[in-house]
Amino acid sequence: MSPRDVLKQELLSLVAELDEDTPTPADLPQIVGMIDRLSALSPIPDPINHLAAVAGSWTSVFASFGFGRAKGKMRHDDSTLGIQTFKAFAEIPIHVNDIIQEISVTPNAYNNVILFEPMDRSCQGLIIIHGNYEADTENPKRFRVVFHAAELRACNGVNDAALRAALELPEGCALKRDFKPAKLHSDVVYLDETTRINIGGMGGVYILERRAEPAFTL
């Protein structure tokens, strides 16, 4: 194995061993240090010029959210609709099962997809945070992203009425809502065929792996 492959495997093994339900600030310096070393070895150092390599459906295997808060894996986490939708929906408790990011070349979609259940686990649904990106002309790693709408979508045989009922939303309420555009940026500091590492504009660190399953939104 090449030095890059050895380091990548060490990083992925480390995050796989973390307790996904426990904040892990003690692990962050080691993880960030490994990411810094791996970034210098990225086989695609200018992702903005290789959008086809960035495009697709990616699942998060590690996320540190910045501001001192970290999670081993951004899945199996209690949260609320408000937190996950830029407050487009009320602070209704939910359980997050997985978070996926989906990017396309044409159109320039940059969507976050949250797989979730109501707290009673009575059904399953998706939260789709719709966004678009532009290339940063001065930084070949940077995607400038604007998120603008949140959508709730029933899945796995559940219909919209059942999803509304499980979340105690009013009958007939809109399941897609625009919100004040959230303008952010994300730097893709490492990219190969199966792994992508992002550093967010607010200090978040995200390790993602390419999914084999079809995308939800592309």
Give the tally of structural domains. Answer: 1
Order of H and E elements: HHHEEEHEEEEHEEE
Number of strands: 10
Alpha-carbon distance between the two ends? 34 Å
What is the average of the pLDDT values?
A: 90
**Which ranges are low-confidence, i.e. pLDDT below 50, for 5 or more consecutive residues?**
none
Shape: globular
Would you tell me which CATH topology applies?
Lipocalin
Helix fraction, binned, reads: 10-25%
Q: Give the biggest sheet.
A: 8 strands, antiparallel, barrel
So, CATH architecture? Beta Barrel
Structural class by helix and strand composition:
alpha+beta
Query: What is the multimeric organization of the chains shown?
Result: single chain
- Sheet with most strands: strand arrangement: 1-4-5-6-7-8-9-10
Work out the helix count: 5
SSE blueprint:
Layout: H1 3-17, H2 28-39, H3 51-54, E1 56-66, E2 69-71, E3 77-80, H4 81-84, E4 93-103, E5 110-118, E6 125-135, E7 142-154, H5 160-167, E8 176-191, E9 195-200, E10 205-210
Antiparallel strand pairs: 1-2, 1-4, 1-10, 3-4, 4-5, 5-6, 6-7, 7-8, 8-9, 9-10
Helix pairs in contact: 1-2
